[in-house]
Amino acid sequence: MTITQGPWTPFAPSAADPWDLHKVAHLHRRAGFGVTWANLQHDFRAGATASVDRLLNPPAPTAEETQILDCLRQGVLDSRDAERLKAWWLYRMLYDPDPLREKMTLFWHSHFATSNRKVQSIPLMLRQNDLLRRHALGDFSALLRDILADPAMLVWLDGAGSTKTRPNENLAREFLELFALGFDHYTEDDVRAAARAFAGWIRTREGGFQAEDQFHYDPTKVDEGVKTFLKQTGPWKPADIVRITLEQPACALHLCRKLYRFFVGESEEPAADLIEPLAEELRSHRYDMGHVVGIILRSQHFYSRAAYRQRVKSPVEFSVGLIHTLEVPRRDMSLLALAVACERQGQELFYPPNVKGWDGGRTWINSTTVLERGNWVADVLWGNADLGLKPFNPLSLSERCGLPQGKTVGGLLDLLLQDDVAAEVREIIVRTGADGKADSLRKALQLVLHCPEYQLA
Amino acid sequence: MGSGQLSSVMRHIRKLAGMPGSRNQTDGQLLERFTVAQDEAAFETLLQRHGPMVLGVCRRLLANPHDAEDAFQATFLVLVCKAGSIAKRESAGSWLHGVAHRIALRAKVRTERQRTRTMPLADLPDEASADIPAVADRRELCAALDEELNRLPEKLRAPLVLFYLEGKSRHEAAQQLSWPEGTFQRWLARARELLHSRLVRRGLTLSAALSAAELSTSGATAAVPTVLTAATIKAAVLIAAGKGAAAGPVSAQAVALTKAALHALFLTKLKIATAFMLLVGFAGLGAGMVTQQVLAQRQSEVSTKAEMPRARSMNVAGNRLAQAEKTAPAIAPVPPDPGDKKTMSVDGRVLDMNGRPVANADVAVLGRPKDPLRTPRGDGQPGVALGQGKTDGEGHFRLTVRQTSKERFWAVTVFARKSGQALGWTEIDTDLEHAASEVRLPRERILRGRLIDLQGHAAANVKADIVRIVGPAPQRYRPLLKSDRPPGGLACLPEPVTTDAQGRFALRGLDGTLTVTIEVQDDRFARQELEIKPWDQDDRTETTFALAPARVLEGTVICADSGKPVPNARVRVQAHPEVQEYGRIYLAETRTDEQGRFQLFPHVGNTGGAARVPASILPPPPAATFTLTVYPPAGEPYLAVWKGFNWPKADVVKHRIDLSLPRGVVVRGTVTEAASSKPVAGAYVEFEPQYDNNPFYRNEIVRGQKSTSGPDGKFQLTVLPGPGHLLINGPSLDYVHIETTVKELYGGGVGPNRRNYPDALVTLILKPDADTHEVAVGLRRGVTLSGCLVGPDGKAVERAVMLCHSYIPHGFDFTQNSGKEVRDGQFELPGCDPLKKVEVYFLDPKNQLGAKVEISPGQISRAPITVQLQRCGSAKARFVREDGKPVADLWPVTELVLSPGEPMPQTFSAMHDKGPIADGVFLANVDPERHNGPKLRTDSDWRVTLLNLIPGARHWIDGDGFRGKFHAEFTVNAGEMLDLGEIKVLGAPPPKDSMPPRPPPATLKPSKQGKP
After folding, report:
1. Which residues on chain A are in Cβ contact (under 8 Å) with B542?
2. Quick check: pTM over 0.80?
3. Which value does ipTM take for this structure?
């Protein structure tokens, strides 16, 4: 199987399998954080290719947007408040014109899972987040090289202070197992060799009270000796380790499996012949992540039943998507409350549970997290003064979407679920909001958002 | 065989041999053996001695055995790190108990935070499923026991820990403390009694708590797991070898706990002085000549201090008071501040940036006052407007304002501004009666900004006040205008700003070199400061700020006894932001309504970019990030209380805390001048309970109730029942002080035993149900010694510093700031006791002149006197280890000793066991040019030279840190260079390899080298 034939060939609409609202919404759920009514209609008219192109080549932010982003970022640095850091990223997920980049940043955040619980530094976490965003859809080899020199990662996996006389193996082990190759593709000797090659980072502070910690690559602590790593022998440095690792077939396979799980489906392990062509593309395009993500998003496999609603929405996807899709006005909501809602549902940004990141999939759903999802829906729809959330106005959304009177509930079902509900459920929802009053519409929305189908991406 | 294997074998052999040497040694000796020779066996003995107790403390607080073991390891790693400062202890048991308790508490907070988020039910500890209520009760009992134990002074805690928690016999425990067995018995009984009384107040009994402690740890002497012992020893060895624990066999959690505890200890050390200032006043210069007899005489002037039955003395005082009230109208009160009556004139010109006079400009004189004299120094006062006016057609102005002085004001500044031009200013001499100034108005730069919320939405119609203006770089830490609420009604100061619909604002009237801080005043947002730095930007830059959303704190204040609401109580919430800025305190304050309800908008701390302490060197976020304090309205018989709390969650806007105020006893009194019975207005009165034996004292009660006497000399305050003291200071420096000590005032265990010098002292022992208690206080007015200060050439000395134990401008004790500047050869020393000899010290650092003067009682009233300064002396010394090897990189601190006593101990626990601490001044504070910084580091010949030493005065050089401990006393003659020889440094680290070898000296002089 190759990329030019089989499931990864680009999706071509047909009478039997048209480009419809289901597919538009599916694309935005996977490549972003849900879709507004206006974008749903726009991309429906634009077609699949144009829609994916727009996600891969988004418009640049305006000067005003840039100013606001810079200001919020500075506020995070000044306050050193982890909650504001979370709110800042959620702001980007909600309002940045490049949602795919934010989505990929979230992917890398779980891939290179680093927790502030150990790092204990907001500036370093922010810096790592910037790094992940910068390389999100770029060259994976550059991302690997930079993450090995990232201060937050150096703190997290004890890379800082690892010297030629006392090389620490934590970073090397996770590099091989989690970041690049996957389990069973390396030996303990390879771990030791990589640890020696990564040694040399030290952490210092100079300049008194106002100084921040500095991370230096100290030539005197570097192991210049010869190492044998993945059967290649030489005086390897970090860049060599990255190069040799990327040469391993297992590396591209490992990454593509994770990408598949993130973008396509997580219900079952993808067959090897499904992943091989993607991995080959990744290798042949020098680990250009944007290229492979583009292939996935354009493919007929991506729009097939094998992918459609085959993932459980993560708490961030669920909570951010709700705000985004309903276009909750900025003045009526609180990003701090949104950050806490995600945490309560099991995904605290900047605090992944361990080095493996979030397991995702079915683990997102249990009795507690379902209750918390319901609480967030209720808080958004009915408001919660104690959290700084004002009640949602469905009439205003209906008006903005141009939904005709008496068809409001149907329109909202199209927007949120593309009518993917059983007839009897649909009837209950429509009946609940039949009188078109704000409260009735809120109740109807609450039913929609509690549907099992809405929990799926 | 590698060294690691070797040491392991050695350890095993010693263990087999029974370690006879270790068993008989004190903890201090063992610690020394471990730190000096890295003797693992010594550390193992310490672990065997105290490990079970420490593990018990940790297990009692931490349900998860892994958490308990982390806390256990952290405790012993802290012991290793702090070994130098506690090595002289006989037993480290009580110290370890305190550290273990604090570490376990910190670990508990951490794990509970984590657990609420992540812990599935299946992961609950086994015991929880067995009998949850019983375990919870037991935990509560144990927690109370450890908490109360931890609050006891060390002398009381040590026997309890050894006897009850470590299961030692009386004989063994006494031996370990190096106490006679009888002494041990007495202290144990006293400790047991006090602990019991404290537990009873919490509704518990000592026996129940001890049983619970024993149950929860399966016996006091439960063994520490071998694996844990081995890992802890290994980590300790790594640390002692300077390799750090992170690489050792300890968990990240244990390392984090160790670091946090070390931070806390470091801060505690810093806080000791600060806290003590708050408790007692400021460090005192000892008047060593005030004898007990005179003290008694002074005290007898205070009616209730007499050794009479309490009720009777109260009646006498009450009768006298009633009589005084009847005749009061005929007596004129002593004015509270004679300086207020005087005026000074400030005149000058206002010019524009081209030097042309500016007509009709607004001019104002603003002062930054210090705290009132003889009150404890706090955080300073808000700026006050002393006067304002306008310039005439030629740009001239002349303002008559009240006289200022260095004693009362940090700085006085003339501000001027005219519409279209920026604010100009110039600082004037606070001590002059006639100050001339010229103010230049710079070019105006409109500072533009924009406010948005965290969602990026414009924050429209938000008002922000200017709270601080800081000058260009050299003055960065000396604000021109610093106030939580700048003085209102001053035409020259820029107006507050209000944002438009897009959240934009423009701040006019300032130039581009200043840093301006504005504070948001809008209930939609939290109180927060925003810093604008126009010097960092071009003219058109708009600074955008994201505002943190409001947090609302609500609650009700009630009386603890009746449950009735407390209206008009002052409620204050202080934020402790994780990022702290030097010298900033973030407060919000309000008063309760008729139903005792309050609503506050806590501050979030700074959001600007001023100098900050990076999070990495701060201790972990405190257990409480806010402190709520409630003060009852004046005159109510209730006590102020405080409560620390964390905001429940970032998304919570409203949080509620209810508080109840415990009942106290109202004390009323009158302050008069002893000789004339004239009432003294503005006298400062403070109550301090005796901490070590006041059964009513609780941590949440605000200490140090304060009051000031009114024009009729009367004061009132509500105090804690039980033993305590009223400390009274007159409103000026004119009153004679009495001498007491911290130990006499507070009992043991509160800090260094410094001398205190209030103007009067009243001892109180009040019952909780007592009615209003009346006291009468007499103050004795002293005389003012004045004179001329001349150099050896007979000419007036231009500038010098005068130091005297009786000159204490703030608080109750002598501080490093207590020196008084002498100008133009004229000095004045108020408040001298005409019956006592006075010792006064003068130093003119610039001309290297000094003198110690003893003024006899007869001379004091015969003013003025002339003092001739002499050439200062100097001293040199070399520093050597005990083995005679040199010590490099040592920074000795030189202190001028003004009263005899002990040197300041370096550890908290050692402080209260000492006799009175000597009053002294670090010469680095008087003469930083020659006594500060690296100049004092030992040179290549391991020698220091100390310059500018006052002839005839007693000096110390001290050191007590990780570079070793030493102490030497000496006196120099005028112009003399005194050779102190070689001074032994105890516990100095081994010399570096690169240091050149040096033959041992032929003779070593004793470390305390005195010279007449």
Report:
1. 67
2. no
3. 0.89
